[in-house]
Design a protein that fits this description.
The chain is of the alpha+beta class. It has 2 domains: 76 residues, SH3 type barrels (Roll), CATH 2.30.30; 154 residues, Lysozyme. It has 9 helices and 13 strands. A 4-stranded antiparallel β-sheet has the order 1-4-5-6, with no helix packed on it. Strands 7-8-9 form a 3-stranded antiparallel β-sheet. A two-stranded antiparallel ribbon has the order 2-3. A hairpin with a 4-residue loop joins strand 5 and strand 6. The longest helix is centred in the last third of the chain and has 14 residues. GO terms for molecular function: lysozyme activity.
């Protein structure tokens, strides 16, 4: 918490890793934002314990949200943690209690189909050294790549799977614990976020509706085809990609992705 905001409040004592609530009645929600459903409320002075923290909707200048042991999220603005920085592990990080699921091969194959492949290092339109399925290298020789260059397509897909981890993390973090997705549904959303960006995904009506409990396949079928515009025009490549993602989501599988089992 920012101490300037709390200066006029009575002091609290933090005991046993628990932190006091400083608002009169504070809502704990299914995700890190006020658009998520209210799961329970806390009263002023009530102690809560945190399982992890994550960025979310900005509340009075504070972006951090705290996931409590009740399984819901409350803005860190209302929790006296003594700092505006992390006091618990980041939700969904490998150092936290749960890591994001890895995408299945069907998802890797779908993304690779639309990203295009280059076996040797080249300079992309923004001037960055690039190789494989759009991997941005740390230097002109791509010495950060652990596979031999020229890349084989097999190694290129392995590298792509590594590059997908941030999108897997963000899809996992932005979905509530009540959302149930199989690996194909999850993969469709990872592909979408890989293409459109995590920020766009997090602010989307798709994620908001998903977290409110709507049927994933019906929702994906309705929402993903809206993401086909570039420069104010419908792009045929995006139409094909959204169609492929919807088809993947609707492909039956018993392999579970979310919620994460720790």
């Amino acid at each position: 918490m920012k101490l300037t905001v709390l200066a006029g409040l009575a002091p609290f004592v933090v005991l046993g890793g628990a932190y006091p609530i400083i608002g009169d009645v504070v809502n704990c929600r299914s995700g890190p934002g006020t658009s998520y459903d209210v799961k329970r409320t806390y009263k002023e002075g009530q102690d809560v314990k945190l399982t992890c923290q994550t960025p979310g909707e900005v509340i009075n200048g504070v972006k951090l949200w705290d996931k409590t042991t009740d399984g819901c999220y409350v803005s860190d603005y209302y929790v006296k943690t003594g700092t505006s920085d992390y006091v618990a592990s980041k939700c969904g990080s490998s150092s936290g209690s749960c890591a994001a699921p890895r995408s299945n091969q069907a998802t890797v194959d779908l993304i690779s189909e639309f990203e295009g492949f280059r076996a040797s290092v080249y300079t992309d339109p923004t001037g960055n050294p690039t190789v494989g399925y759009g991997h941005l290298c740390s230097n002109s020789k791509c010495s950060d790549v652990k596979y031999s260059i020229p890349l084989s397509k097999t190694d290129g897909k392995k590298l792509l799977a590594d590059d997908m981890r941030p999108k897997e993390d963000c899809i996992t973090k932005m979905t509530s614990d009540e959302v149930t997705l199989n690996l194909n549904q999850y993969g469709a959303l990872v592909s979408w976020a890989f293409n459109m960006g995590c920020g766009a995904a997090e602010d989307s009506s798709l994620i908001k509706r998903l977290n409110k409990g709507e049927n994933p396949n019906a929702l994906i079928t309705d929402e993903l085809p809206k993401w086909v515009h570039g420069g104010g025009e419908v792009l045929p490549g995006l139409v094909r990609r959204r169609d492929a993602e919807v088809a993947l989501a609707k492909t039956a599988t018993t392999a579970k992705a979310l919620p994460v089992k720790c």
